[in-house]
Design goal:
By secondary structure, this protein is of the alpha+beta class. Among the domains are: about 220 residues, Beta-lactamase (3-Layer(aba) Sandwich), CATH 3.40.710; about 60 residues, no CATH class.
């Protein structure tokens, strides 16, 4: 009898010391594709903020383009309805202009002619000052060998043409926009390449024989930006004389507005445009003390003010999410998603996001159904995240973040598995 009592006692102690299985983890434990990766999930009722699912929600993840959700918040909260196209000062003998980071000037899809017309109508000599922009043209932690890819354009105070060179071959004849780059293309001796390559530190472009053999070819290549290039592009585009200056921008400098910010922000979010994200975050800094353009300045300002209550203090270094130095938790992402709801009605906010069954990153999900997912994806090698808003079958609005890092399978595999999880969550809640 004594032995039975001792055995029962030991059994009770063993059961009480055994870690309890969190039923929420069943959402990921049966998914073989996630077996060797790291996943974090937070799902909350958007109205009551009651947490419904919590798996590794306080752990840090590389957010990739989920970072654009923060750039959206910065732009909505700090930028006026219309983007600042330029700031300027008129003297007795000249006009001095300062770039404001506006990404729409001569942009092939978003550009309008307001700034162009204003600049060409000036009769006095034109000076371009670069005194308000002193940061690197590439973000902290960007991959150095992606400089030739169109998703990693440089950041500048006065971007033009989306900071891209548009190279085309039509029936073997090259066409280059802007035309000023037409005389900087040379034959590439490397016969193994089949793309146009820019020199790393200069606007010299090498065209491979395989490219030249194509009857039709198209490629966007990032410009190597500089103050001198901005001057050259203005001269070429405006057909007016432009001189460089380093005159400090006074508080009294006037503003020329270019276009409504809504179209640029929607393109940034729905098409995950890195160039727009970087430039819009940069422009968000210009009204802060100092009248300078600085990505770091606006990030520090928001983390100390509006976003001081992040659940985990994030590491935030750029506007697009190109940098792997960025680190956010699922709880951080749900926090910023809730903060966005304070800025505008849900219906307006959701229109900035990718939507199920519509053009964008969620086009293959819920095709033919009423919109129920409004989210932003973020991906790079070993990273796939999805954060946003979900209308559950119960009618509840949920705020969610599903972050997957450190996998070696394809991004498409993890994306499909994440989409399955979203549908399960929708049906359950």
């Amino acid at each position: 009898m004594k032995k039975i009592i001792v055995a029962l006692y030991l059994l009770v102690q063993f059961i009480s010391c055994t870690p309890k299985i969190n039923p929420e983890t069943s959402l990921i434990t049966h998914r073989q594709v996630l077996e060797n990766s790291f996943t974090g999930i937070l799902v909350a009722d958007a109205q009551s903020e009651k947490v419904l699912i919590d798996i590794n929600s306080k752990k840090y993840f590389t957010p990739a383009s989920n970072t654009k959700i923060l750039s959206l918040y910065a732009s909505l909260s700090l930028l006026p309805d219309s983007l600042e196209g330029l700031r300027y000062m008129e003297t007795d003998s000249s006009f001095v202009i300062w770039g404001t980071g506006d990404p729409t000037f001569l942009h092939p899809e978003l550009g309008n002619r307001k700034i162009f017309n204003w600049l060409t109508s000036r009769s006095k000599p034109l000076y371009l000052s670069t005194s308000n922009f002193n940061q690197p043209t590439q973000g902290l932690g960007w991959s150095w060998d992606d400089y030739n890819d169109d998703y990693q354009t440089e950041v500048s105070a006065l971007p033009m043409y989306g900071n891209l060179v548009d190279f085309k071959l039509v029936n073997g004849n090259p066409r280059v926009i802007p035309a000023v780059f037409g005389n900087t293309f040379y034959v590439d001796p490397d016969t193994t390449s089949n793309i146009v390559k820019r020199e790393n530190y200069d606007n010299i472009f090498l065209v491979n024989s395989k490219v030249l053999a194509n009857s039709v070819y198209s490629q966007h290549i990032p410009m190597k930006t500089s103050a001198a290039l901005s001057q050259q592009l203005l001269i070429d585009t405006l057909a007016v004389k432009v001189q460089l200056s380093y005159l400090s921008m006074p508080d009294s400098a006037k503003v020329i507005f270019s276009s409504d910010k809504t179209a640029a922000l929607k393109s940034m979010m729905k098409m995950s445009d890195n160039f727009l994200a970087e430039q819009l975050l940069l422009q968000s800094s210009i009204k802060l003390p100092g009248n300078t353009l600085s990505t770091q300045k606006v990030i520090e300002y928001l983390l100390q003010k509006d976003l001081a209550r992040f659940p985990q203090k994030p590491r935030w270094v750029d506007g697009s999410g190109l940098s792997r130095y960025n680190k956010f938790s699922p709880a951080d992402m749900v926090f910023i998603l809730q903060k966005l709801r304070e800025l505008m009605p849900d219906g307006e906010l959701f229109d900035y996001m990718a939507i199920n069954g519509q053009k964008g990153s969620l086009s293959s999900v819920g095709v033919g159904e009423e919109p129920f997912i409004f989210a932003k994806s973020g991906s790079m090698s070993g990273v796939y995240n999805l954060s946003g808003y979900l209308k559950a079958k119960s009618g509840k609005l949920l705020t969610f973040s599903i972050m997957n890092n450190n996998f070696t399978s394809s991004v498409s595999e993890i994306r499909k598995e994440t989409e399955k999880m979203i549908l399960e969550i929708r049906d359950k809640y």
